[in-house]
Design brief:
By secondary structure, the chain is an alpha+beta fold. Helices cover about 50% and strands about 20% of the residues. The protein has helices at about 1-25, 30-35, 40-60, 70-80, 135-140, 160-170, 170-195, 200-210, 230-235, 240-255, 270-275, and strands spanning about 80-85, 90, 100-105, 110-115, 120-125, 130, 145-150, 155-160, 220-225, 255-260, 265. The longest helix is centred in the middle third of the chain and has 27 residues, at about 170-195. The chain starts with a helix and ends with a helix. About 25% of the residues are buried.
Length: about 280
């Protein structure tokens, strides 16, 4: 009973801090002073306060949640929590029920399609600022893919119930979600088109061009850094790692690119774009 009472007090303190951060940051010190009379709870204040601030910052820095009305923002914050995963650790598995939205605040995540024989295929790569878990979140169906951290990764988990309530309270958030889902459908259609109609060489070239900053153009040389291991990129492009490496060597042999580890120097953007069409 004592442990349950302490956990309840912790939860109440966390909620008060999150509400103060959203509605009036100046009240954070006041709500902390109100709990210092309890010696045990006062020891928890630095940890709980730091966690509440981190959740607030993670929500505020997300393009999906930034600038929302305080009521909707508070609804998201009151249930959200940061979770840390080591490289290679599974976050959720195919077939498991969805619990909420996962927003990547640090690190990288791979979404995997898994066959019965243990073979895996990379379905998508999610970096900082990206999110996943929407299909099971909005359809109440189990996860279609397995998500695993590629490197040490931190996620912000927003529970399903809190997000659905916030969507009802904030039409702007609903529009952002629709836009994000539409963007993913567009990408998936493009992926399907490339798998069916493009050669492996064209897929690799298009991937490299996608990594080039938008402001770059013309014949000048530009360098891009591959965000993950080449084997993961190959799987994402529906290629074997050997085929992917062979294509890179072919492009280097024709002086279109130069490969230095994870760094790829595109010698002439115009020529590489032309090669994508051939």
């Amino acid at each position: 009973m004592a442990a349950a009472g302490l956990e309840l007090k912790r939860a109440l303190l966390r909620f008060k801090l999150q509400a103060a951060l959203v509605f009036d940051p100046g009240q954070v010190a006041e709500c902390v002073r109100g709990d210092t009379q309890n010696r045990i709870i006062s020891q928890e204040i630095p940890r709980v306060c730091a966690a509440a601030v981190q959740v607030f910052q993670a929500l505020s820095s997300s393009s999906l949640f930034a600038g929302l009305e305080p009521a909707a923002f508070g609804r998201l914050a009151e249930g959200a929590e940061l979770r840390d995963f080591s490289g290679g650790e599974v976050i959720c598995r195919e077939g498991e029920p969805g619990t909420g939205l996962h927003l990547v605040t640090q690190g990288q995540v791979k979404l995997l399609l898994q066959a019965g024989n243990g073979h895996e295929k990379v379905f998508d790569l999610i970096g900082r600022g990206g999110c996943f878990g929407e299909p099971s979140l909005y359809t109440d169906q189990p996860h279609l893919v397995t998500a695993a951290a590629i490197v040490p990764t931190q996620l912000l988990h927003v529970p399903r119930a809190n997000l659905l309530c916030a969507l009802q309270e904030a039409p702007e958030l609903a529009l952002r979600v629709i836009k994000g889902l539409a963007s993913r459908i567009y990408r998936r259609t493009h992926d399907l088109k490339s798998y069916m109609l493009m050669s492996g060489k064209q897929r690799v070239i298009c991937y490299l061009l996608h990594e080039v900053p938008l402001e770059q153009d013309g014949p000048e040389e530009v360098a891009v850094t591959l965000p993950v291991r080449k084997g993961l990129i190959a799987s994402r492009l529906n290629l074997t790692q050997e085929h992917f490496s062979r294509i890179l060597h072919e492009l280097a042999a024709t002086a279109l690119i130069k490969v230095e580890g994870q760094r790829v120097h595109i010698r002439d953007l115009s020529r590489l774009r032309a090669a994508a069409m051939s």
